[in-house]
Amino acid sequence: MPEAHLLQVRDVVRTFGDRVALDRVSFDVRPGRLTGFVGANGAGKTTAMRIVMGVLAADAGSVTFDDAPADLAARRRFGYMPEERGLYPKMRVIDQLVFLGRVHGLAPAVARARALELLDELDLGDRTTDVLHTLSLGNQQRVQVAAALLHEPTLLILDEPFSGLDPLAVDAMATRLRARAEAGVPVLFSSHQLELVERLCDDLVVIHEGRIVAQGDAAHLQQERAGARIRISVDGGTDWLAGTPGVRVVSQGARGAVVELIDGADGQALLVEAQRHGAVREFGRVVPSLSEIFREVIR
Amino acid sequence: MTTETSSALDAASAASDATAPSRSALIRTIASREIWVKLHDKGFIASTIFFLVIIVAATVIPIMINDQTHDYRLAAVGEQATAVANVAAGLHTSASSGDVPKVTLTMSSAPDRAAAEALVGGGKADAALVTDGTALTLIGKDAVPDDLVILVKAAAAQTDVTRVAAEAGLSSDQVQQLVAPSPPTVDLLNVQPERAVPPILLVMIFGFLFYFAVLTFGISIAQSVVEEKQSRVVELLVAAVPVRWLLAGKVLGNTALAVGQVTLIVGVGMAGAALAGQSALISQVAGASGWFLVFFLLGFLMLACLWAVAGSLASRVEDLQSTTMVMQATVMVPFFASIFVTAPGRLQEVLSYIPFTAVLLMPARVINGTAAAWEPWVAAGIVLVTAALFVILGARLYEGSVLHTSNRTRLVQAWRSARGGAA
Q1: CB A125 within 8 A of CB A88
Q2: Looking at the structure, do residues B268 and B379 belong to the same domain, yes or no?
Q3: Which residue of B has its CA nearest to A71?
Q4: Architecture of the CATH domain A7-218
Q5: Taking a contact as any Cβ pair under 8 Å apart, which residues of chain A between 221 and 280 contact chain B?
Q6: Could you tell me if the ipTM is greater than 0.90?
Q7: Which of A177-181, A206-210, A249-253 is the least confident region?
Q8: Of B10, B233, B236, which has the smallest distance from its Cβ to A152's Cβ?
Q9: Residues of chain A contacting B21 with CB distance shorter than 8 Å
Q10: Closest by alpha carbon to B225, among B313, B149, B163?
Q11: Does the pTM of the predicted model rise above 0.80?
């Protein structure tokens, strides 16, 4: 039975000089779920993640992990992938992983065994004794992943984990994160690739200019913002829609039409009407994509 | 999938494996990485070997030069010259050998001056001794070795005295008295311990060792700090290790290496001297190196934290030159003070209590015998207190600047942005 952990960020404020980077930011990262953290450049994603990791101090507010303050002992069990990747360029891959493992409290032998196992899993089994800077950037990124996963973290904070990865590596990384989440580890990752976030994440946190503008179950958020638009496709065409009361045609094409129900018109009545014109091939609410929601909430 | 099963198992076992490491264990981990990196650094290995070679050469070569006996070939022409040459050859085994150069002579004879000149010119003899009946002439190719000249002069004088004394009818005992006068013995009222090398030379060597160690290890601390900043590893580290512990680990690792390297160099030097039979040198250095090592350790600790600060103020290795400038000067001051302020006096006394210069000048005064027994303790206390203050100051500045990765940090900025008391 995997143990479940919960990270809670509450009313965190952080200023840099006159600039307010985080303005009473609150969100949860729930166990067993991948939480996507999205926002424009400079919105405060990295600052928030650094505060969770204790790299930066908050001016106010709290970060709790399993209902206790996320102190040094708790943070040492977190796995972290900083935005700007960081490892010792002149150290051998295995040596620095063992070092980082020991820093996170692993015994040297355990750290070595885990590092070798992870490197094998990441297809770097034959590069363990290479000096880091001789590896390609993609492979250095994999070592960075190993560094974050080495100590079987209780929480994963990953700043742009997919940047610079090819599509295959993206899939491998996604599978890996999913496996950790299913083991009960809350996973928070930021990304600019909204399609990717949409495909992967269970929960969503949207930050804009230091404020959380939307958060929660991603599918629920999409349904919530779906509004009254319906995609409709009927054998024999949709020309009849133009004269139908309570309906405004948004777009119309060979493959169907998108209409908006106006004045509280009944969707079911429209379906019945459609069936009278031919076999209904498609009838459903138009769910906005993540990037549409994103553009909407940050407007 | 099997991997998922195994990672779930791993997650379960991780809870028992990952124990919270103690502060000392973490500091040891950081320190041992510093040591490991340095021991795998070719530059460090090369410089250590270079110093070992220098120190062995410095102890062994002068001794070899002193003890070397030169062998000269001397060609003599005629009876008179041969007699003088024979006396010269026998001189260094006679009673007054202490004043005579250590030279052995291989004799040969030549029928006339031309033949002798041919021997010298052809390299068969180092010099030739000829006579025109009254005066002796020493013939050399382009030069005659000084030792040989001294030896022949002494032999000629002795031969003359012996001949004149014999003509005057002196007994052989009286002649002996004349040619080998008994010199006065020297009695000192204020006897100093026997010194194999001048104390000032010892102070200079120790001073140079300190200068070299603080500079190289100081720069290596600064580089190690800026490397972590530049490569952003520091972000991973501070999430798990308090910044102060990080600093402590770095400083302790490098201190252990520096003290180890200096001890190795001094030890190998002493071993070299022992092999060369210089027991006086060994007892002199052993007596002096105690306080030197104490002050070395304190002085190193005092400056090490500031080197870390100098490193943390830079954001890239290229910035180090400017951020470590003050530190380089701070190391040079005691070195030059120890070289130039050699005369015992008020200035040396005052400087031997000022933390930066005390590190070298107080052990220097101890070596010279001009410090009272309590004085090094007081100076060591002053350096220790200064070191403690610098550690506190350095830790705060380091904490305030090590996470500013974007550009050079100013001191004031570092002081202000230090997170007061945050773990």
Answers
A1: no
A2: yes
A3: B423
A4: 3-Layer(aba) Sandwich (3.40)
A5: none
A6: no
A7: A249-253
A8: B10
A9: 76, 102-103, 105
A10: B313
A11: no
